[in-house]
Write a structure and sequence with these properties.
7 helices, mainly alpha, 71% helix
Length: 203
């Protein structure tokens, strides 16, 4: 078998990895299918604005505009946009305005896809945490049931066998953010009335 033929063969992935890749690909495909024709057109224009070719064409347009207005008096004709080129400034401002709007629309579409990916990542992380807690619980049950293994109390394993409560974690995060925001708003060396300093090593 030749080296070129070997390189053309795609690698064989495990089933679970293949399913994950296909799920992510479907997420992107569904996101693109949900776009309207106007959104696709705006995305295409935004991609065109981001290419080096557009910068070159824009530079040629500006140089041509300036060159024509400078050269017209030499042929006895008045320039259509004399110095200080107010017409060019107006066209540049209009183009910049449309580019900004197009970029904002495209960014909003990208943010929607990012939110979907973040939600998928969060759900998978919670599911993995629940699976890990269940595995620890089963291992602890197996350890207690084995007659040749000495039974002992493992507080850490007991705590890890309980799945985390997302709402409780969210409340703790909110409280920590409020405490951090209050500490950042206070002048240096001062503390909020009635608040005690957080000891080192505390979460």
């Amino acid at each position: 078998m030749s080296l070129s033929h070997t390189a053309a063969v795609p690698p064989i992935l495990p089933a679970h990895i293949e399913q994950t890749v296909q799920a992510i690909a479907r997420l992107h495909v569904e996101h693109r299918r949900g776009a309207t024709r106007l959104q696709r057109a705006v995305d295409g224009l935004t991609r065109a604005f981001g290419r080096p070719r557009f910068a070159g064409l824009l530079s040629l347009f500006i140089l041509g505009w300036l060159g024509v207005n400078i050269a017209l008096p030499a042929f006895g004709r008045p320039p259509f946009d004399p110095w200080p080129f107010n017409g060019l400034n107006g066209v540049a401002g209009l183009v910049a305005l449309f580019m900004t709007v197009f970029i904002l629309i495209t960014q909003r579409r990208d943010d929607q896809l990012s939110e979907l990916r973040e939600q998928l990542t969060l759900e998978l992380a919670l599911l993995s945490e629940q699976k890990a807690a269940k595995l620890i619980e089963l291992m602890e049950e197996l350890r207690r049931d084995l007659p040749n293994v000495q039974n002992r109390v493992d507080r850490e394993a007991d705590a890890l066998s309980l799945p985390a409560d997302p709402e409780a974690v969210l409340e703790v995060l909110k409280e920590n953010q409020e405490v951090a925001a209050a500490a950042a708003a206070e002048p240096a060396g001062e503390s909020a009335p009635g608040s005690a300093p957080i000891p080192a090593g505390s979460p």
